[in-house]
Write a structure and sequence with these properties.
The complex is a heterodimer of chains A (about 280) and B (about 280). Chain A has about 280 residues and is of the alpha+beta class. Chain A has helices spanning about 10-30, 35-50, 60-75, 115-125, 140-145, 180-215, 225-235, 240-255, 260-280, and strands at about 80-85, 90-100, 110, 130, 155-160, 165-175. In chain A, a hairpin with a 2-residue loop joins β5 and β6. Chain B is about 25% helix and about 20% strand. Classes of the chains: A alpha+beta (about 280), B alpha/beta (about 280). At the A-B interface, α4, β4, β5 and α6 of A face β12 of B.
Chain lengths: ~280, ~280
């Protein structure tokens, strides 16, 4: 993210390494879970996040979050659920994605950390499963109302990225009326570890994507962008030096400023070049 | 620190219950002599959590003291020792479980979970500091931290408790992450275990593959919650208070036991330890 001093390049490399490890873990998970479909579901979620690295896909971050929640819900047969991310500055949980009839209405909804089940899980890092939640009308009322109903059973886990909790994954009501089992908790716990890395990977890609678009539009001047961000962008595009990427962005920006004919000509030339490179690589 | 070692080392499934041979040295130890007839009287138990609803029927006024550490404006830690409520229901659940096993034990509510995460680790450590300084016999920690910054601070506190003969019972994290104090060797690290879900609340198991050393009842357990109500809950958070209750019974009957003696006795009395003929 521009202005952020964090070494994005190193973190991206770390995250790619983790993704590779995750693929190995998935193979191990398959042998631990009775449902053969579990492997494919996890693979889809993770490969989806890997695909989200593609520059110029502004919706990739949200898509990755949705994939994480939908995968978790599908694997454990949950009727509804929510993925919260922690807002460190305000110490709140933000509804990032929700499953359920009113999922669109709950976005940007905030829950104080420390309160309710999701808040407790975020504060303590302990996973909890609750049955008969409706016996307490105050129980997770916020989430229940937001998503459209009061849940009967809840399975809630923290999302750890290394030693930090970045969010909370909460599934509501198992399809068919059964309870979430300890085995479900273990499965979701293992999935949560993968999910947290997936989310972080998508977030970093989103940040790099945002920076690239800013450079192309001339909204960000290269000397204003931290070297770490440029390094990350160069790594993502497999370009060897920051000077090259700055020059490339500057050229595209200048061409676009010449007007529509120039912009179209540049696109035709670049498109032709890409087609030629694709054809060459396939021979 | 061991970053890659899984905190979760205890499967909740009873499919592979390991039967542990008992050393001949411990065969004379039995449950009746250890805690038979004990009610936990004379034992002080700190529950470091989200607060306790002392009016809940499951707790029945067992809370005898309160403490809430917080960071003051000058950055120092202050303690409010007025009665407080439970913010989430979790602390009341833990206290209710303890009270059901050791009804005469005195419970002290140490509330370290507020609405904000900032300073959580420091506040959490201060709550533990308070419990040690106020001469608790047992401390229940159904929470932990995975933040490596606090590793040394908690290690020092846990060692100090150990040398002061204070038994710490901790819930292992349900997630495959490093979490402490549950990973320290001197604590009684507990996870929920399906085999311990029988009618006897004193059932518990010993795990031969630490760091989680004990498995207790914490699956689909009816626990006290907010507003005098109950919910059915699953989690290691609810297994640890069961072990806390057992430790209270043991210490009440044998008050001079040290933490390492307590752990040895518990491992000898575990349901899956074969005492032989």
């Amino acid at each position: 993210m521009p202005g952020n001093d964090v070494d994005l390049e190193k973190r991206l490399a770390d995250q790619r390494y983790v993704i590779e490890q995750q693929r190995t873990q998935i193979e191990q998970l398959l042998s631990q879970h009775e449902e053969n479909g579990f492997l494919n579901l996890l693979k889809q979620a993770l490969l989806g996040s890997a695909a989200a690295e593609v520059i110029g896909a502004p919706s990739s971050y949200e898509a990755a979050l949705e994939a994480v929640l939908e995968t978790a819900g599908e694997v454990l047969n949950a009727n509804a659920g929510a993925l919260f991310l922690i807002d460190d500055e305000n110490q709140e949980l933000i509804f990032a994605v929700a499953l359920g009839e009113k999922s669109e209405e709950v976005k940007e909804f905030r829950v104080p950390v420390g309160q309710g089940i999701a808040g407790y899980v975020a504060a303590t890092g302990q996973a909890i499963s609750i049955t008969d939640a409706e016996r307490d009308p105050r129980f997770d009322k916020t989430i229940g109302e937001a998503i459209g109903y009061t849940p009967n059973s809840i399975l809630c886990i923290p999302l750890f990225l290394n030693d930090q909790i970045i969010g909370v994954l909460e599934l509501l009501d198992k399809a068919g009326g059964g309870n979430f089992t300890p085995s479900d908790m273990e499965t979701l716990g293992r999935f949560g570890s993968l999910a947290a890395h997936t989310i972080e990977e998508a977030r970093l890609s989103h940040d790099v994507s945002h920076l690239f678009r800013q450079l192309l539009r001339g909204e960000a001047r290269p000397f204003e962008v931290p070297a770490s961000s440029l390094n990350a962008l160069s790594a993502t595009l497999a370009i060897e030096s920051n000077e090259d990427i700055i020059e490339l962005a500057a050229m595209v920006h200048k061409i676009c400023q010449q007007g529509e004919p120039s912009r179209k000509l540049a696109m035709d030339i670049l498109g032709g070049l890409l087609s030629y490179m694709d054809a060459k690589s396939n021979t | 620190m061991p970053r890659q070692r899984p905190a979760w080392s205890w499967s909740s499934s009873s499919i592979e219950t390991p039967i542990m041979p008992s050393s001949g040295l411990f065969r004379s130890i039995n449950r009746q002599d250890a805690f038979g007839g004990s009610s936990g009287s004379g034992i002080k138990i700190a529950v470091i959590d989200s607060g306790i609803d002392n009016d809940h029927p499951a707790v029945a006024g067992a809370v005898r003291g309160w403490s809430e550490p917080s960071i003051k404006a000058d950055g120092e830690i202050g303690f409010i020792e007025e009665p407080h409520s439970d913010l989430s229901g979790h602390g009341t659940a833990c206290a209710g479980i303890i009270h059901s096993i050791a009804p005469d034990a005195e419970i002290y509510s140490v509330r370290v979970l507020g609405q904000r995460l900032s300073g959580k680790g420091r506040v959490f450590a201060s709550g533990l500091r308070w419990a040690i300084d106020n001469h608790m016999n047992v401390i229940n920690l159904s929470l932990g931290t995975s933040n490596a910054e606090h590793f040394s601070r908690f290690h020092e506190l846990v060692d100090e408790a150990y040398y002061r003969r204070i038994v710490l019972v901790t819930a292992a994290n349900n997630m495959p992450v490093v979490s402490f104090p549950s990973l320290y060797s001197t604590v009684i690290s507990t996870a929920c275990y399906e085999g311990a879900n029988g009618p006897d609340p004193l059932d518990f198991y010993y795990n031969p593959k630490p760091p989680v050393e004990f498995g207790a009842n914490g699956i689909d357990k009816e626990v006290a919650w907010l507003d005098g109500r109950y919910v059915t809950a699953t989690g290691n958070s609810f297994a640890a208070p069961s072990m806390t209750g057992v430790v209270a019974l043991l210490l009440s009957k044998h008050p001079t036991l040290t933490p390492f003696q307590v752990k040895s006795i518990l491992s000898s009395l575990a349901n899956n330890v074969d005492v032989g003929a």
